[in-house]
Amino acid sequence: MQQLSGLATQRGASVTNIVLIIMLLGIATKLTVAIVPAQIGDYQLTKVLSAQLKEANNNKETAKQFVERVNKQLSINADYDTKAEEVFTFTDKKTGQLAIHKEYVITNNFFSNVDIVNRFEGNIEMATVE
Fold first, then answer.
1. How far is 109 from 114, CA to CA, in rounded Å?
2. What's the rounded Cα separation, in Å, for the pair 68 and 59?
3. Is 26 exposed, middle or buried (0-12, 13-18, 19+ CB in 10 A)?
4. Among 9, 70, 99, 121, which is disulfide-ready with 103 (CB 3.0 to 4.6 Å)?
C-alpha cells in the first residue's frame, strides 16, 4: 500500500483559510452597511427633487419658491440634516423652465479613522422629469 503525504492527504479548509474567509465576509458586510444607505438616500432625494421640479415648473414657480418647496418636503420626509441650498444649484432659473444640478457628498465612517466618501452628482431638467 502506498502512503500519501503532504497536500495529497489534506481535505477541507485550513484554519487560516476559514479565518480569512470570515474576515473578508466581515469587511464586505461593513462596506455594504456603509454604502447602501447612502445610495438609497440619493435615490429618494432624486425622486423628491424630480417631483418637486415638475410641480414647480407646471405651476410656473420661481427659483425661490422651488427652494422653499423642496425644504418643506425635506422636513416632511424627516430629512432635517439636508438643506436644498447645500444639495443643488440652478442651471436654469427661468420661471416654468427650472433645471438643477445636484451635487453633494455623504461621508460614513468605515472603521477607526478610515472614511467612505459617497459623492453624488447629476442634472435634473424639465425634459428628464417628464
1. 6
2. 14
3. exposed
4. 121
According to DSSP, the residues that pair with 88 across neighbouring strands are 102
Q: Are 34 and 117 in contact (CB under 8 A)?
A: no
Look at the chain and count its residues: 130
Q: Are 103 and 127 in contact (CB under 8 A)?
A: no
Q: What is the residue whose three cell numbers read 472614511? A: 115
Q: Residue type for 8, please? A: A
Q: How far apart are the first and last CA of the chain?
A: 79
Global pTM value: 0.77
Contact 69/56 with Cβ under 8 angstroms? yes
* Joined grid coordinates for residue 52: 418637486
